[in-house]
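Milestone M4 deliverable, item 7.
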Amino acid sequence: MQREFVEAPVRGVLKWIDQRLPVITWAYNELVVYPAPRNLNYWWNFGSLAGIMLTIQIVTGIVLVMHYTPHVNMAFDSVEGYIMRDVNWGWLIRYLHANGASMFFALVYIHIFRGLYYGSYKAPRELLWMIGVVILILMMATAFMGYVLPWGNMSYWAATVITNLFSAIPLVGDTLVTWLWGGFTVDNPTLQRFFSLHYLLPFVIFALVFLHILALHQVGSNNPLGIDLSKKDKIPFHPYYTIKDLFGLGVFLLVYGYFVFYAPTAFIEPVNFEPADPLKTPPHIVPEWYFLPFYAILRAITFDIFFIPAKLGGVIAMFGAIFVLFLLPWLDTSPVRSARFRPIYKQFFWILVLDVLVLGYIGGQPPEGWYVTIGQIATAYYFLHFLVILPILGKIERPLPLPKSLDEPVLGTAGAQAAK
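Output delivered:
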């Protein structure tokens, strides 16, 4: 009786709010009764995990901003001194945020490769995929600017090298670099601009994630078979996938917690524990691990191509490696989504995964000797995969028979041959 007495006014207030601003109805429809394919596997966990990680990054970032000083004379001490030693639990917030960036990129990269394997970029999900690519680009911009904020020596020189790349753009390059720097060298105006944008962009990403989810729920989730499903092949998102996501979250937090508490500096370059020094260049300037594949592509262009200078060619190749993903829904000409029914594409997919790992390794090595040659070969394959192999493969590959529903047995390669 007491419980009903308490709950009745609460329900009344919620109903009154929902009649004027239907957020409760929207949340119920999108997060509880949303019809999801009943055959989703754990590879579909990484999207929700990335959303949770984004929230953690925003919350920890807001707390860090309260104690950070965006000035070249005080930034390093405010991070390594004040936040790490004087702020209550400051070390924990800092390590949650610093390692959270790596965890966020790891989750998003797995999420992207899952989409590549199961063809989640194909019609009618082209816009969903393109919004995801925009999120990736903004993540990279945000992470780069955040890497500069501790104002360690690697931060300073990474900012100098990367921003200098824009000088390769004809006509406007030098002007653009001067605008990025806020002067004629990386200095206090640069740090303040990066600090402002690093604080702003996560909220832009959050808004794009909302649009990403909205676009997903508009057309429905893809599934491991890559087929269009009827209502009988779908189940409510809650409780079936909320439980699955919570289990995945538990496993992820164990991995995240290991780095935060037992290896908090595993992803931080030792040079970055030294204050920024314009007169002391690190022997080997490298970005964070999640930029290394693109950094390797940048350095792979060591000669002029069709009157395009090597520096400009490297910049075009680096940005082209990301922007080619926008065209993926149209570059892949196969009518079949899932690689489970594309035996030849499946092999090329795993070659691409290996190729990206090789690029990541090469990006962390000095640009000399056989590292340069391997980087050039891996870069060439990366673009061949998307611009040549996918369009041709979609025309000549003979996919396996697709089931019409989840109740129909799926034939493997041997079964398909026997059926013929």
